[in-house]
# Entry
Amino acid sequence: MPNPRLPRVPDGELPDDIKEMKAASIDLRGDATFFEVMANNPDLLRWYIDGFYGEVFKSGRVPADALEVLRLRLSAQNGCKFCNQGNRLSARDAGLADKEIDALFSNDLTLLREELIPVAQLSDELKLTNAAGDLDTALYEALAQYYSPAQIIELGLIGGMLTGIARFLFVYDLVEREEFCPFLGPVKKSI
# Structure
């Protein structure tokens, strides 16, 4: 269970829209630490949900199934249990088959549709644990078979933002992690 340093906003002080977000998170994930803490800055939380997810993630040029492959592969690699629970459902809603969803947690990307394989490979380059990530010629050419330059930029920017958000979630201890998460909980530092 997350144990953030920042205070959680009590239920009685939550704006109605954030109460709804919290309730939905509890129903889906069994935890709402992210929403309780982010409610300290409700405008930023609303931007994240409505602006980033509503206007950028869901309203761009990239097909929904490709975006969900990118997002779920990143959250699977990062070991974010909070994210994986929701992202699995979103991937299914976007048309991914169970075998494709399972493939994103393994290294058998051959189970993905042909056009989704380079998207999963791009997430491998963007993940937190890959300091040497690179959009090399082979990956670019694989992406370019199915996606326009504008879509490839969108995939990279969204993937980069999701990676940065994952880092934020882990550093601020706002989410539960999978047992296989490569990032251990906060390390106690002596001053």
About this structure: The two ends are 25 Å apart (CA to CA).
